[in-house]
């Protein structure tokens, strides 16, 4: 690594998280989880987190939160995360995340936070009624990442702005305290489906918290439900184009092609070489079949793991212990840099 490399001197380490704010969606799988598994397979140190503290920035029914946390852990494992090789845990059990987040609340500026599109989207017109936690969300996310000195964060496109803010926080901390302590973390936004859109509205991203279940494919949907949701997905009357440019003004068509490419590990051009000129009445059943083929083994394994919640809890507890071993010295050093007595 050259001196110009902002990550020089930092051990490569991957961190990412998913909120237990509902069930896993196809968007989470293609935009995030699939990348998480690939990075684990590359042999880098990987730390993956069920971010329950983020989930409660909007109301969560306690019993549902408990279940969603376990189900998400099962989803990680079913998708291919090996809790022996990756560190897998839930955020609330490693207090260092919240502790570093407080320091970052004091580094981040109000103006930075007000510009965050996730804040604007989620708080909507009702900002006065939104929680303070929802506003501070990106500072906690920066802490999630930087408490491990993570160098790379695989995320979907929607989290790009939060990753930029994470770098701004790291840079301001380093500058204010005259240190080179926090790395300027790189986002990793890769694949054909970094932004899976709602099946009902091609201008909105697919989300697990969307009130409409028809807008998304859940990892736990059965074959009939997946087929029905894809059949009813909004499209236009034209046949599929034969090249990339033909998708430009057609967000719904583009979304379905991207999903196909993401699931099949193909390039968009390759999908269009096969389906260009065909009607959606031919493409949709093929897409549904592919989605069922890829998702049903994962959902079957999730269901099997959910039969043994104690095992899931033990995996999370062991993961939290390993995560804490990494995070505690970094938090302690942060407190020392800030000048706190006793650190
Ligand atoms: P919520 O609606 O509660 O925010 P979500 O579906 O957006 O839930 P998150 O837990 O916020 O899920 O995000 C987890 C990961 O999944 C992040 O890396 C995020 O970028 C990615 N992700 C979320 N939605 C999509 C999507 N539609 N396409 C691609 N990646 C996505
Ligand atoms: Mg989200």
Structure description:
- The protein is mostly helical.
- It is built from 13 helices and 5 strands.
- Strands 1-2-3 form a 3-stranded parallel sheet. The protein has a two-stranded parallel ribbon with strand order 4-5.
- Strand 1 (13-18), helix 1 (26-41) and strand 2 form a beta-alpha-beta unit.
- It starts with 12 loop residues before the first strand and ends in a 5-residue tail after the last helix.
- The site of adenosine-5'-triphosphate (ATP) has 21 residues, from helix 1.
Features:
mainly alpha, two-stranded parallel ribbon, 5 strands, 6% strand, globular, binds adenosine-5'-triphosphate, binds magnesium ion
Quick recap:
This protein has helices at 26-41, 52-55, 62-79, 96-105, 110-114, 117-123, 132-146, 160-177, 223-232, 251-264, 268-275, 280-306, 309-338, and strands spanning 13-18, 45-50, 87-90, 152-154, 186-188.
H-E string: EHEHHEHHHHEHEHHHHH
Biggest sheet strand order reads 1-2-3
- Tell me what portion of residues adopts beta-strand conformation: 5-15%
Total number of strands: 5
* Mean residue pLDDT: 96
Report on the biggest sheet.
3 strands, parallel
Q: Helix coverage percent of residues?
A: 40-55%
Determine the number of helices (DSSP H or I, runs of at least 4 residues): 13
| Poorly predicted residue ranges | none
End-to-end CA span = 32 Å
Cα radius of gyration in angstroms? 21 Å
Shape: globular
Bound ligands, named by name, code or SMILES: adenosine-5'-triphosphate, magnesium ion
Given the helix and strand composition, which structural class is it?
Answer: mainly alpha
């Amino acid at each position: 690594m050259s001196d110009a490399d902002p990550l020089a001197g930092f051990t490569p380490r991957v961190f990412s998280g998913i909120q237990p704010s509902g069930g896993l969606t196809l968007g989470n799988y293609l935009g995030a989880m699939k990348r998480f598994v690939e990075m684990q397979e590359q042999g880098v140190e990987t730390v993956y987190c069920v971010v329950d503290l983020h989930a409660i920035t909007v109301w969560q029914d306690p019993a549902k939160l408990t279940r969603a946390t376990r189900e998400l852990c099962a989803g990680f494992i079913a998708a291919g995360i090996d809790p022996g090789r990756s560190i897998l845990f839930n955020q609330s059990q490693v207090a260092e995340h919240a502790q570093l987040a407080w320091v970052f609340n004091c580094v981040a500026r109000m103006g930075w936070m007000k510009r965050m599109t996730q804040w604007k989207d989620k708080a909507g017109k009702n900002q006065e009624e939104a929680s303070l936690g929802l506003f501070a969300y990106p500072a906690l996310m920066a802490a999630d990442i930087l408490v491990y000195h993570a160098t790379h964060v695989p995320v979907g496109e929607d989290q790009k702005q939060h990753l930029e803010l994470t770098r701004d926080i790291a840079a301001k901390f380093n500058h204010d305290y005259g240190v080179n302590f926090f790395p300027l973390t790189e986002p990793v936004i890769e694949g054909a489906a970094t932004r899976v859109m709602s099946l009902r509205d091609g201008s909105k991203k697919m989300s697990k918290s969307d009130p409409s279940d028809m807008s998304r494919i859940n990892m736990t949907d059965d074959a009939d439900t997946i087929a029905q949701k894809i059949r009813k997905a909004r499209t236009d009357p034209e046949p599929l184009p034969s090249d990339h440019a033909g998708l430009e003004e057609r967000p719904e068509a583009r979304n379905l092609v991207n999903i196909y490419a993401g699931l099949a590990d193909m390039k968009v051009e390759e999908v269009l070489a096969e389906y260009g000129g065909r009607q959606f009445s031919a493409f949709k059943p093929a897409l549904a079949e592919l989605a069922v083929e890829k998702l049903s083994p994962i959902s079957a394994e999730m269901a099997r793991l959910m039969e043994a919640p104690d095992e899931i809890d033990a995996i999370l507890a062991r993961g939290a212990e390993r995560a804490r071993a990494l995070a505690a010295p970094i938090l302690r050093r942060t407190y020392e840099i800030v000048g706190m007595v006793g650190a």
